[in-house]
Each structure stands twice: as structure tokens, then as C-alpha cells.
Specification:
Helix content is 49%, strand content 10%. The protein is α/β, with parallel strands linked by helices and 385 residues long. It has one domain: 2-enoyl-CoA Hydratase, Chain A, domain 1, CATH 3.90.226.10. The strands form 2 sheets. The protein has a 6-stranded mixed β-sheet, sandwiched between helices. Helix 8 packs antiparallel against helix 15.
């Protein structure tokens, strides 16, 4: 059914096009596919449940188009005091965006390659500016698009099952969904390190890195949800107090030190360089087992993506979320026009040979002029928030 909704729509005037989209969505609902996301009201809480467990709750355009208007409606509703978002299936909160559909669309110039990113980033902004307290229960895999659905909200509750990563440089993309906003704002150079290497954080480390706001044991989440729904006055302070009460009782891995603790000094110095070439040079000069390991990882990534990502984070560090998302939309469209995204998806997700042939193949071959072009405004096609 997804393929049916995502097939190219005829070229029509904007109004007619909207009618066609609505017809497609109606068709979508009648076949039960709207169950990919469940939207319900319990007490004073609006609850969003990502419901594609077989796809690890990966986010597609249809889900975005259901979630966005619902958040906006709950924001205006005086009887909705908070919004909770979670995933089904026990394995993932949301493992990312529907990359395969975007790849297929991008190859044939289908509008989905524009619409998906435009609507996804608009949703990320709605979460980042939401006037109602927004609680994301990031139980399980939380990557890419799943990070965008959670990290910009007020509260992010990690569990021992949380697995966080922004692995986009491995598929010729960049850590989008507002990555240029939140990653450079993490302590030291952790965000740069996570963005360039795709390093995975697990469980309590997601909290210690500053990505989650609370840590609660996975089996306690149903109780937490009931207590959140039962709050009579769901102010941010009341919600924070409730989350804190669960957080302090969670004992799993309480004594373990942060996985990157022993490397933080190196991360802060090695990843503070102004260019990718300089980061690589510093890693080579350092020569420690940690540095060599990072070098091996970086050598597998798309050189274009690495350069794009470093600049994205350096610029995003002093920009508003809206300006970051506008910048990232430009970068997403540059990736759709380029080579490495399609090659990365082929190597990692389709053929799974894990041997992408990047073009250009070396950092030195990615010119500043090429990177500059990726950041250029798109005129009438720019994302407006």
C-alpha cells in the first residue's frame, strides 16, 4: 500500500494536486494503513503511537501527514495538557525515515524526494516550538528520523533498551532533522564526534551525553504513562517532578561511567579542528588505539557527507532551529541531486555489500566550491517555517 500512496502524482495545479493527495489519503485510511500511526486522547494527554513494528517504526510521509496536524490541533485544545509519543513492538522507538522510498523517488525525480524532507522538517519544527509539554518515550532504537521526533521536545525518556545514533554519513547523507541544531550544543565536541562517526550510544549513556533528559527502566514505562495521563495539572514542572521520581528509582547501570568518559579529552581536541582534513591529520598524529579506530570509521564514510556535516554543525551552532532546518532542507536536496546518497543506500540497505564506491572518493577531491553550492538557497523551493 505504501507504494500505492508514494507513486508519482500527476502534474496538476496546486489545488487539484491537493485534492488528489487527499483522495490518496482517504484510500489509505480505508485500507487500514492509517494504523501505521495511532492518535488517541486519554485524559488530558494526546498520545502518538508509531505503529510500524516490522519496519522498526520507520517514519514515512503518510505518518508525518497524520502526526503534524494532530500536534497542531492538540496545541490549540484547552483540554489537552501534554503530548506523549512512543513506538510499538518493543524493539524501536523509531529507527529512522523511510529511506528506501526516498531513494526510489529521488532516482526518477519524483516529488516525494522534496516533499518528504520538507514535511518532516516542518514536523520537527512543530515539535521544537510546541506550546504543550511533549514527552518522548525513546525505548529501543532511536536513529535519524526518530531522533527528529524526540530530541526537540521538552522531555526525552531513555531506557536500558535505547540505542541512539545518527549514522547518516555512512549512507551519503548528513545528520539532519535538526542535527545541526542539537548536536553542536552537546557538551564539548561529543556532537561532532557522533555526527561524523555515527557512534552508537546505549541506555543510560544517551542521558549522560545530554540527548535524553531522564532514564527510566523499560518495564516501568506503562506505569509512567498512566501517571502522566492521570496528572490533574500537567504543567512542565509537574511533569518534570513525575519524571524525576521515576528517574531516581531506576537503578540499572547507575554506577557505570559514561562510555566516552575516558576519551572525552581526545574527542574535544581531535574533533575541534576547522576542516575534515585537519581532523584526519590530528587523528593520524595522535596514533592512539582510539584515534586509529576513529580514522578507520571515518575512512568508510562518504567524503562529501563528512565535509557537508562538519560545516552544517559549525554553522548550526549559532543558528535558530528554524534556520538550521532551512539549511538542512537545502542540503537534503543537494544529496538528492548527487551520487553518494544512492550509492550509500545501495551498499548498506539494498545489496548490503557494505562497500560503497564514493564519488569523489577522497576528502581532498571534495572542493570547497562544491560544498558551498550545497548550502545555497533554493529560491522559491526553500523551506519556509
Amino acid at each position: 500500500m505504501a507504494a500505492r500512496l508514494l507513486r508519482p502524482l500527476p502534474r496538476l495545479k496546486p489545488f487539484n494536486r491537493l485534492q488528489v493527495i487527499l483522495q490518496h489519503l482517504k484510500m489509505y485510511k480505508h485500507t487500514g494503513s492509517s494504523d501505521e500511526v495511532l492518535l488517541e486522547k486519554k485524559g488530558g494527554a494526546g498520545i502518538i503511537t508509531l505503529n510500524r513494528p516490522k519496519a522498526l517504526n520507520a517514519l514515512n510521509l503518510s505518518m508525518i501527514q497524520q502526526i503534524y496536524p494532530q500536534i497542531k490541533a492538540w496545541e490549540q485544545d484547552p483540554e489537552t495538557f501534554l503530548i506523549i509519543i512512543k513506538g510499538t513492538g518493543g524493539k524501536a522507538f523509531c529507527a529512522g525515515g523511510d529511506i528506501r522510498a526516498i531513494t526510489d523517488a529521488g532516482k526518477v525525480g519524483d516529488k516525494l524526494a522534496q516533499d518528504f524532507f520538507r514535511e518532516e522538517y516542518t514536523l520537527n519544527n512543530a515539535i521544537g516550538t510546541c506550546k504543550k509539554p511533549y514527552v518522548a518515550l525513546i525505548d529501543g532504537i532511536t536513529m535519524g528520523g526518530g531522533v527528529g521526533l524526540s530530541v526537540h521536545g521538552h522531555f526525552r525518556v531513555a531506557t536500558e533498551k535505547t540505542l541512539f545514533a545518527m549514522p547518516e554519513t555512512a549512507i551519503g547523507l548528513f545528520p539532519d532533522v535538526g542535527g545541526g541544531y542539537f548536536l553542536p550544543r552537546l557538551s564539548g565536541k561529543i556532537g561532532y564526534y557522533l555526527a561524523l562517526t555515527g557512534f552508537r550510544l546505549k541506555g543510560r549513556d544517551v542521558l549522560k551525553a545530554g540527548i535524553a533528559t531522564h532514564f527510566v527502566e523499560s518495564e516501568k514505562l506503562p506505569d509512567l504513562e498512566k501517571d502522566l495521563i492521570a496528572l490533574k495539572s500537567a504543567s512542565k514542572e509537574n511533569i518534570a517532578d513525575l519524571l524525576n521520581s521515576y528517574h531516581v528509582k531506576s537503578k540499572i547501570d547507575q554506577e557505570k561511567e559514561f562510555v566516552l568518559d575516558e576519551h572525552m579529552e581526545k574527542i574535544n581536541s581531535l574533533f575541534s579542528a576547522n576542516s575534515m582534513e585537519e581532523i584526519v591529520k590530528k587523528l593520524k598524529e595522535d596514533g592512539s588505539p582510539f584515534a586509529i579506530k576513529q580514522l578507520e570509521t571515518i575512512n568508510k564514510m562518504s567524503p562529501t557527507s563528512l565535509k557537508m556535516t562538519l560545516r552544517q554543525l559549525r554553522e548550526g551552532a549559532s543558528m535558530s532551529l528554524q534556520d538550521v532546518l532551512t539549511m538542512e532542507y537545502r542540503l537534503s536536496q543537494a544529496c538528492m541531486r548527487g551520487h553518494d546518497f544512492y550509492e550509500g543506500v545501495r551498499a548498506v540497505l539494498i545489496d548490503k555489500d557494505q562497500s560503497p564506491r564514493w564519488k569523489p572518493a577522497a576528502l581532498e577531491e571534495v572542493s570547497d566550491e562544491f560544498v558551498d553550492n550545497c548550502f545555497k538557497p533554493l529560491g522559491n523551493n526553500d523551506l519556509e517555517l
